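Write out this protein's structure.
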Amino acid sequence: MKALIGFIRVFVGILFIISGFIKLNDPVGFSFKLQEYFGPDVLNLEFLSPFALGLAIILVIVELVLGVALIIGYYKRLTLWLLLLMILFFTFLTFYSAYFNKVTDCGCFGDALPLTPWQSFTKDVILLILIVFLFINIKYIQPFFTNFGRSIIIFATFIACLSFGYYVLMHLPLIDFRAYKVGTNIAEGMEIPDGAPVDVFDYNWKFKVNGEEKVFTTQGDYPTVEGEFIGVDTELVTKGYVPPVHDFTIEKDGEDYAEEFLNTPNLIVIVAYDLSKTEWNGWPAVKSLTNDAIRRGYQVIGLTASGVDDVNSLKLKQEINFDFYFTDATTLKTIVRSNPGILKLNNGTIIQKKHWNDAEEIELEKLPTAKLDLDFNLKFQLDSITRLDNLYRPLIQESDPAKRKALADELGIPEEDYTGDLWKKQRMLDTTNLQRIKRLIERYGYPGKSLVGEPTNLVALEVIAHNPGEVEEYLDVLKKAAEKGEIPMTQVAILEDKHLMMQDKEQIYGTQAQITAENGFFIWPVTNPETLNERRKAAGFKRTIEEYVADLMGKDAQFKALKLSEIKRL
């Protein structure tokens, strides 16, 4: 019996130590799991959610210390009582979760060994039986070492746990068990292998047959039944293959940019799942890193689950010089246990992952696309103008009131600001923006990509374009900037063509088209149409005028060189 008790004692102790260490390695992840249990759909203890991290650290340290205490026989009766109370609590929790299907993974062993709710409950029942058995046979538990020696071991264990917990909180988990660990290719992690099992469902069809309700179960086929159809319920029978990386998107304005960024070399990603809960003292380090990365030629983006208001507030307060995209909060919490956290990616492969405290450890090389002379103060001024330059335009283009309200909410525009004459409001902003751009051009010349990078180099051009009366004055400035490679010549060409068309003059590059009810699309008259394609090629357009017309008006459409006199008739 003594040998059996000794084995059980060591087995249970080691299990508690392993379970505690895995969770102590990732206390933030365990706190997220506790928040799930505290949620309104589970235990409805939301008042405990703000204290989840503190509770998580206390629980895992107690769990780990009790495991050590059981093995060495430290205050064995108190230790067994505490173990019994802890396992009773966890047994209730896992049963509740399993029976009511509330939390799909108990988090007992973190991400190292995910368990289903019933597996977790079974594990806890076995531990409960073993602990009760030890309690009954407590007399056979013989302590190791002297009383003083055992006290030293427990004290040392406690201090080691506190130190280790503090370290992983200030940095990141020492061992990363998640699907987004360093070396992982995110795109490959989302792939489903050929022949992988798929979800299998039972379809429970309800019919009224001869006045009696009956249920017919199939694997999806509609049953042949003589009766009145009532409804159908589905039940998951077998769970199919779930790739390690799932629910990963990078969205903005309704578009998913995940594929684009997962094929981008030299990408720095700043992850902040909730900007309202972010650690503000971390952003100066992030700003310093990202500014350096942009100068060295890296592309930088932010990922968050927060709304536009929070993003704009952060960018304004911290003078952030990169754009944010939307990603699911749970996914972001899984990617990195820091808010904000930093990833260095190369074509979708995670090269480095750091807490903001370790921002200086991100290794940045000087790339061929480096722009070491970027002026970030100027860049920030221009980026702040961009938001105002497009504040009301999306709302003006949306005629549906419900969609307009939804769009305003997405853009962070209060209701009183998207009613009334929106064009008048936007024109006032356009005028103000133009004055700011004029002062900047007078001071710096045209702020091109060597000074502010891309796409900020287009801000001044767009503001000028939104003030048609000023285009003539700045065309030469824009052309010189394009000749130096500071802005794309194609953008200047489009603006010049539009300016000429609005003055009822022939355009140069054939970029502008018009539409009438009777004559449909037509290209606005072009000067010297016989050399048009040469001018388009020199300006950087990839398509000939014939290809452009086919794309714009349909594959059977042909370019017709009209004259201004013909346009007047149209």
